[in-house]
Specification:
Structural class: mainly alpha
Shape: elongated
Distance between the termini: 11 Å
Helix content: over 70%
Number of strands: 0
Radius of gyration: 23 Å
Order of helices and strands: HHHHHHHHHHHHHHHHHH
Number of domains: 2
Oligomer: single chain
Number of helices: 18
């Protein structure tokens, strides 16, 4: 039991180490407050949601090992992997490292990774860019045409950009002032240029790479346990009565995947805000992949129990978390202004506190159930 809390605390401290360092040495409290809404995947998810996701993940592992693994017959398809679990863990480590490398080389970094002077300039550039778009016309369609034109022009400028020899902060600021807000935003979202011009804070950058690796490692382990548990349920024809030992691991996995699924909502908000000012193609679209995998796993877990295939009040309630994820996902796509106010760049401390209280209150119920099963 204690190791679950210890692992949760350790993982929480590790993945939020860039934030802690930033609060003390780099952006400080005011700077982080200004940057918060521009990267909900980096702040809201990791600070508020991740501890629940990590606790549920480690509890799922415990319940699987304690409740399910002892009863697995030799005919179980994945039994060899569990008998040789270090191999599976090493594969997860390798995959996490490869995905981290791909994201590192192909994806632009959020503003909080920049040196304070460039992070501040990024925020000012976004506001300037949006002001120019709003003043371009009173018609929404014409504003969007102007936005696309500015982004295209900025990309052309950056494509033929001559990198200055002097990368001193003062010299670079003068250089960026000459580019304009749209072109500067293109520069800070181009991985190669960011590295050459040394715009990132080196310590935060390094910590963020390890942060990404840890989150991916936990996520891949969760996927493996989820797939194996679902496979066991299918093979054993789980119906809520036959092989009841599957019940609690499946419930823990369900909530683990649900919590991690919220990352796709937060990341989509981050990506959509960035693409508004730099255009598409700055990320690897991991939000859609995570969202799809989350939906498939959650529905698969609910459909395993034949009792959930009949429409009753209890069954409807059991599908409610899936409905919540779908609604939040659709809101981000079709009601971007609402999502921007909720978790994005237009949010404020009051909204974040209310959202946190609501999330923590409802999330405690499944966690308390997991705790009671762990004690058993």
């Amino acid at each position: 039991m204690k190791w679950i809390f210890l692992f949760t605390l350790a993982s929480y401290l590790l993945v939020n180490s860039p934030l802690f360092y930033s609060l003390i040495y780099v952006h400080r409290l005011q700077g982080v407050g200004s940057l918060w809404g521009y990267a909900p995947n980096q702040f809201f998810f990791l600070v508020i949601v991740f501890p629940f996701a990590a606790f549920a993940a480690f509890t799922s592992l415990y319940l699987f090992v304690d409740h399910l693994y002892p009863i697995l017959p030799t005919s179980f398809r994945f039994k060899w992997l569990f008998d040789n679990w270090p191999v599976g863990f090493l594969v997860a480590v390798i995959l996490s490292a490869l995905i981290t490398i791909i994201i590192y080389l192909t994806t632009g970094w959020s503003f909080d990774k920049l040196q304070p002077v460039y992070a501040s300039k990024a925020l000012d550039s976004v506001k300037t860019f949006e002001t120019e778009v709003e003043k371009s016309s009173l018609k929404k369609e014409e504003q969007e045409s102007f936005r696309k034109k500015k982004i295209t022009e900025a990309k052309q400028i950056v494509a033929g950009l001559q990198i200055p020899e002097d990368t001193d902060t003062g010299a670079l600021n003068l250089f960026f002032d000459g580019l304009g807000s749209a072109a500067f935003l293109q520069v800070i979202q181009t991985p190669g240029l960011v590295a050459k011009l040394r715009l990132l804070n080196p310590v935060i950058h390094l910590l963020n790479v390890f942060q990404l690796f840890i989150v991916l490692l936990i996520g891949l382990c969760v996927l493996f346990i989820a797939a194996s548990t679902i496979a066991a349920g299918i093979q054993f024809k789980y119906d809520g009565i036959y092989y009841p030992q599957l019940g609690e691991p499946l419930n823990a996995i369900f909530w683990t995947v649900f919590f991690f699924g919220l990352y796709s909502i937060c990341y989509y908000q981050y990506r959509s805000q960035i693409e508004e000012v730099v255009g598409p193609g700055t990320t690897v679209l991991q939000d859609f992949f995570i969202g799809l995998v989350t939906f498939i796993i959650l529905v698969a877990i609910r459909l395993l129990d034949s009792n959930n295939q009949e429409v009753t009040q209890q069954v409807i309630f059991s599908y409610l978390p899936i409905v919540v994820l779908v609604i939040l996902g659709l809101a981000g796509i079709f009601k971007p202004e609402f999502s921007k106010t909720l978790i994005g760049s237009e949010t404020n401390l009051g909204i974040q506190l209310i959202l946190t209280i609501i999330f923590v209150f409802f999330s405690c119920f499944p966690l308390f159930r997991m705790l009671s099963r762990v004690h058993d």
